[in-house]
Amino acid sequence: MAERVPQVSVVIPCFNEGQTIPRLVGALDRASSQLESTGRSTEVIVVDDGSRDETWSRLADAARSRPWLRLVRFRRNFGQTAAMSAGFKLARGTYIVPMDADLQNDPDDIPALVSKLEEGFDVVSGWRKNRQDKALSRKIPSRVANWVIGSVSGLRLHDYGCTLKGYRREVLEPVRLYGEMHRFIPIYAKWAGARVTEMVVRHHPRKEGKSKYGLGRTLKVILDLLTVKFLGDYSTKPLYLFGLWGLLLCLAGTACGIITLVQKFVDGAYAHRNPLLLLAVLLFIVGMQLIGMGLLAELQVRTYHESQAKPIYLVAEEVNAPCAELPASSPPVTAKG
């Protein structure tokens, strides 16, 4: 008998959460039962990100009596984004729901996220409206980061940092994650034309273990945001960025050079003692370097897209599209009966 393909895949990255695992498994038992009772077959993929405590042994014990619980163990700690990416790759469900392992996210919110996806949305982002974290080290930096991310990306969400989100599978398939970029998936999806919404979810204080988040992570997120902005606006036309600034610097250098000449011939100033001459040369050289970098980046972009046959567009749907032709070597298809 063929194994039933799950409709919902829950992806949970974890690192040194051995104390939380018993409660996590119990909560997942309830959430899985709720989903199964509504006809939504479920799998849970837990990715152990190189834990050094009893996390793996406790997960392995739980998985022996739960066929829906799938486990992956990394050889060392690669980070939350890598663990989440591995879970996404292994997930088989139509709907994919990532969440944290520390139970600050509530698994009981998963059915509501799936229902929201079934309304036609492609991404449902969790919003921890009543967040149970310290204000100075977690809540205030998070609000600042959310405002900055929303301003730069154009997608306004209250809580980019909430791991508990719902995705349709097709939204995640083209996404490649690096750094701390898992929180920017809604931005990638929005740029690809996905329907994005958010939903208030519950948030609980951490009861066991130690938080892996801090102010240093906020700085990493801001740096990753620069990468996301560049990829979103200039990944197919990098010369527009480098060339624009290069031209501006060349014009500024030319202007400084003209001023130097005017001061020499009108005011009798010595050009070799005029700091504007050095500034003119510096600005012009840096400007030409930026233009050259832009041209090299254009060559790399074209090589990247053409070598992988990677399109620069995404098609939402087609009507009356012709069927793919059979290869020349394929035998003719004959009807039986």
Summarize the structure in short.
The chain is an alpha/beta fold and 337 residues long.
Descriptive notes:
- The protein has 337 residues and is of the alpha/beta class.
- The chain folds into two domains: 8-234, Alpha-Beta Complex (Spore Coat Polysaccharide Biosynthesis Protein SpsA, Chain A), CATH 3.90.550; 239-307.
- It is 47% helix and 11% strand.
- The protein is built from ten helices and seven strands.
- It has helices at 21-37, 55-63, 80-90, 110-118, 135-153, 169-172, 185-191, 215-234, 239-267, 275-307; strands spanning 8-14, 42-48, 69-73, 95-98, 123-127, 165-168, 196-200.
- Strands 3-2-1-4-6-5-7 form a seven-stranded mixed β-sheet, with helices on both faces.
- Helix 2 (55-63) links the parallel strand 2 and strand 3.
- It is elongated, with a radius of gyration of 27 Å.
- The model is unreliable at 325-337 (pLDDT under 50).
Measure the end-to-end span: 29 Å
Number of domains: 2
Mean pLDDT: 83
Which strands sit side by side, in order, in the main sheet? 3-2-1-4-6-5-7
* CATH architecture descriptor of the largest domain: Alpha-Beta Complex
Which CATH class of the largest domain applies here? Alpha Beta
How many beta strands in the DSSP annotation? 7
Helix segment count?
10
Strand content: 5-15%
What is the gyration radius calculated from CA atoms?
A: 27 Å
What name does CATH use for the topology of the largest domain? Spore Coat Polysaccharide Biosynthesis Protein SpsA, Chain A
Q: What overall geometry do the principal axes of the alpha carbons give?
A: elongated
- Structural category: alpha/beta
Q: Characterize the main sheet.
A: 7 strands, mixed
Helix content: 40-55%
